[in-house]
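Quick one: co-fold with adenosine-5'-diphosphate.
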Amino acid sequence: MGCGVTGPRRVPRVLSIAGTDPTGGAGIHADLKSIAANGGYGMAVVTALVAQNTQGVRSVHVPPVAFLAEQLDAVSDDVDIDAVKIGMLAGVDVIRAVADWLDRVRPPVVVLDPVMVATSGDRLLDADAVEALRGLLSRADLVTPNVPELAILAGEPAAGTWDDVLEQAIRVAAQHRVRVLAKGGHLTGQHLPDALVDPTGGTVIVTEFSGTRIETSNTHGTGCSLSSAIATLVAGSGDWANAAAESKRWLTESIRHGPELHVGVGHGPISHFAGLWNRGGIVTAPTASEVEADWWAEIAGIRADIDDLPFVRGLGDGTLDRDVFLRYLAQDALYLRDYARMLAVAASLAPTPDEQAFWAGSAQGAIAEEMSLHESWLTNADGSLRTAGLDSVTTAYLNHLLAAAARSDYHLLIAALLPCFWVYQDVGERLRPLSHPEHPYRSWLDTYADPVFAASVRQAIDIVTKAATGAGDAGRAAMREAFRASAEHERRFFDAQGA
Ligand SMILES: Nc1ncnc2c1ncn2[C@@H]1O[C@H](COP(=O)(O)OP(=O)(O)O)[C@@H](O)[C@H]1O
Ligand SMILES: Cc1ncc(COP(=O)(O)O)c(N)n1
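Sure, here it is.
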C-alpha cells in the first residue's frame, strides 16, 4: 500500500485508467492534461492502445490483462491516490481486473466515464462487456455517461429530450445508488445543459448546470476531459456539485479555444490549457531574489552617479558647506512628511496584516524622523525653526509617489517607495565608516549604524520583491519602472543642493 505523505493535500494525486489516443485529444492524454489544468498531479495506467486520430479509430490493441494489473499495483504500491478516473475499458477481462484492484485499494474518489463509442462512432467497448461495466457502477462515486451510454446503462432506448435524459439518469442513479452526471452534448439545440443527479443522501437531488452549445467540431475527448476534471476538483474539495460546475466552466473555455490548436481535420481536440495560457500561465515568474538582483543591477548606474556627487563626497569627508547640508535636511524633512503619508496609503492597501503592520510602522518611523531632524539640526541658535518651501526636485519626487498612490495600486506604490529605504541605506553604508569623533556630520552619519533601520530595509526589499514575483509580466515591468524612477529621484535629491 501507499507510503506517501499523509495529511491535507493541496495537489490531488489523480490516476487515469484509460486507453490511448496518439493525437493527444482523448484517453489518458486528455486525462493527464485535464488533471494538470485543474490543479492535480496526473498519473496514468493504460488499458488499451488505440490507433486513432481525429477522424476515427483504426485498430485497438489490448495488452495482456496481467500486465494491466501490474501497472495498477505499481502505482498503488507506491503512491497514495486521491482520486481515480476510469475511461475506456475495452472488454470484460479488463473490467474484471480493474474491479479487483478497486476492491483491494479502495481509492477515496472514483469517477467512471463509461466509454463505449468514440465521437467518430467507433466501438471502444466490446458489445458483451456492458453487463460487466454495469457491475462497476456500485464501485464508483460518479458515473458520467453521454446520452447513448446512459441509455445502454439503463437498458432503454436513447432519450430524445433533456427531460427524458434527466428521468433516465434518475432511474440509473437510484438503481445503482451512484451519482450520475447527465450530459446534453448528444442532443440538438442551442441550450446544452449537464446535471448532477445525486441519490446518495436518500432523496435524489438534481443540480443542473446550464450551458450554450458552441458551434465547433473540436469535441473529441470532451467526455474524458470533463470526468478527469471533476475527479481532480472533487479530490481537492469533496464538493461534487461545485466540482461539476467548475469543470463545466473550464471545459467550455477549453472547447472554445480548441480550433486554435489546428490538430487534425476531423473532430479536433479541446485546448486544455487555454485559460492558463491566456492568463499568463506559461510565463515562468522570477523568484524574489532574482527580482532583487535584477532591480539592483537596473539602477547600478544611478548608484554610481550618487557616489560621485560632490554633495555626497563632501558629506563623507566633512568638507560639505554647513548651509548646503541644512538646506538638504530641510528638504528631507519636507519630503519625509509626505513620504510618511504614502507609507500610510501602502498600509491601507496591504493584502496581509504583516504587510499592513510593516508599512504603518514605517510611516510612524518616517514622521518621527522628520520631527527629530527639526529638533537636532533644523533649530536655529535663537530657538526658532529653520523653515523652507518645497523645491522643484522634492516636489517632483513626491509627485511620482503621489501618482502611484493615487492609482491605489499596491504593487506599484510599494515599488516606488522602496528606493528611499534601499538606496538611502546603500549610500549610508559607504558613508558610515568615514565617521570620526571630530566629523562635523558625525551624529548624522552614525544614524546609518542603526540595526533597526537595516532590518526594516531588508523587510521592505522582501515584501516588494515577493509581490513582484506574483505580479505578472506587465505588473512587474510597471513596478520595476516605478522603482527605477524613484531611484533617479533619489539621485536628483542628493544633487539638488549643489555643494
Ligand atoms: N458543442 C459543445 N459546446 C459546448 N459544450 C459541449 C459541446 N459538446 C459537448 N459539450 C460538453 O462536453 C461535455 C461532454 O459532452 P458529451 O458530448 O455529452 O459527452 P461525450 O464526450 O462523453 O460524448 C459535456 O459537459 C457537454 O456539455
Ligand atoms: C482512448 C479513448 N478513450 C475515450 C475516447 C472517447 O472520446 P470522446 O470523449 O470524444 O467520446 C476515445 N476516442 N479514445
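If it helps, The first strand starts at residue 13 and ends at 18.
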